[in-house]
Amino acid sequence: MTRSAESFYDDMASSYHLIFDDWDKAIERQRAVLAPLISESGALGAILDCACGIGTQALSLARAGYEVEGTDISKMEVERAAREAALRNLSVKFRVDDMRLLATCKAQYYGAIVAFDNAIPHLDSDEEIAQALTAMLTFAERLASPRPDAQCGEDRCP
Fold this sequence. Notes:
Layout: H1 3-12, H2 23-41, E1 46-49, H3 56-63, E2 68-72, H4 75-87, E3 92-96, E4 110-114, H5 126-139, E5 143-144
Parallel strand pairs: 1-2, 1-4, 2-3, 4-5
Helix pairs in contact: 2-3
Protein name: Methyltransferase domain-containing protein
Domain Methyltransferase: 47-136
InterPro entries: Methyltransf_25, SAM-dependent_MTases_sf
């Protein structure tokens, strides 16, 4: 992942919600899909959204009652996610971190790590993908991410 991805999302933080027809409905739809997925997986403990952006999945899981933390490489998106959580009276800890390293995370602390939307495609090589997945599985026993070839639409995929 290059510095350009970080800059791109920093610049987009204030308007990122506009990619959704209705961001609040998208958050609710994410909750309806992700909460049962996490529950059925048997994951216990906190959930880490390791590429949280402005918080779509992190907010949805917090709304479902999970203890959630969110990290992202974009400082501006992390700040926006924290503001959105506060506006919704949700307790989510957000901080800047790189999903390839997860340097701010505690090993084996999380019940699951999620990496959705366009997180993995930002990695530049198979080696970076392997590095990120290795880091994620160092910090949790479960990982949820859509297949790279998944055909997602409004009614499928979170």
